[in-house]
Amino acid sequence: MSSAHEAANILPSNFDIGGLSNALNNPAQVFSMLDKNNDGRVTKQDLALLLEQFGVNGMAAKVLSSYLFKQLDANNNGTIEPSDLVHANGILSSLLKMKQSGNQ
């Protein structure tokens, strides 16, 4: 299980927070983009694929997607619904601030 500190530490220095934040401003649109098979569910693997599109790759994508998934899966049912994505921007911003401040 990834902690906030692990997730912040693993963020690449070239992480495109602006691009991802813009994408996450429309949770329904991001959800439909992530839900490749249109089953109404987004998995941790789907989330990792989105992160890879914004420059988070390999182990970093796995660690960060694991942390984000845990934070976003509000009802702990193992999937993310569109309403769960509302808080994604705030979580990512907090991680970036944590990384930039060095107070980990």
From TrEMBL:
Keywords: Calcium. It comes from the Eukaryota. This is EF-hand domain-containing protein. It comes from Rotaria socialis. Residues 22-57 form the EF-hand domain. GO terms for molecular function: calcium ion binding. The keyword Cytoplasm does not apply.
